[in-house]
Amino acid sequence: MSGLRRFWSRIRATLVDWYGDRATRDGRRSGGTMEIKRDRMVFLGYGKYWRSDTILGLMPIEEDRGPKRRTNVFVEGRAEPIIASRTEQSILEDMGATDAGFQAQASREAITELLAALHELSPAVRRTLQQDHRFDVERWEQRLGEMLRAPRAPESVDQNELFD
Question: In the chain, what are the domain boundaries?
């Protein structure tokens, strides 16, 4: 096995170990951030709707769970939770937290860790990778760093330019 293949297999093994340590019972990553879409009405079931940005927490009902009783929804301004007939996962999806969002966060975290691992490579290993395998560590560090930076806002376009 070449040195580059061993390197990538070590990175993959590290990422598998890293993700395994942080997975929750349902396989989702814990500790990530979630962007809640403001001013969105979330259906809680049986005619109940609530604004997504006032929902403070979701807790699955474990005892006496059944039809019309799936999730306790804690909302701003109420002492008692609202009992929702939908699962916490479906409510989260309506709030704006989709699997794509969780996957994007996991990808950012994996890229950050890979970038840190590349940064720790010694100059001798960097030269060997470049000479023997044409793998430019510095170029990849730069590309991965660019991926982590926030996307630039599009330049504003004058409306009149659109119709010229």
Answer: 3-27+99-148, 41-95
* Residue 141: pLDDT over 50: yes
Please say whether the beta carbons of 59 and 75 come within 8 A.
Answer: no
> Could you give the CA distance from residue 103 to residue 92 in angstroms, rounded to a whole number?
15
Cβ-based neighbour number of residue 138 at 10 Å: 10
Residues whose CB falls within 8 Å of the CB of residue 126, separated by 6 or more in sequence, listed in order: 137, 138
Does residue 79 have a pLDDT over 80? yes
**φ/ψ of residue 40, rounded to 5:** -110, 130
Q: What is the mean pLDDT of the chain?
A: 76
N residues, the chain: 164
Report which of residues 64 and 164 the model is more confident about: 64
Rounded (10°) CA dihedral 53, 59, 60, 66: -80
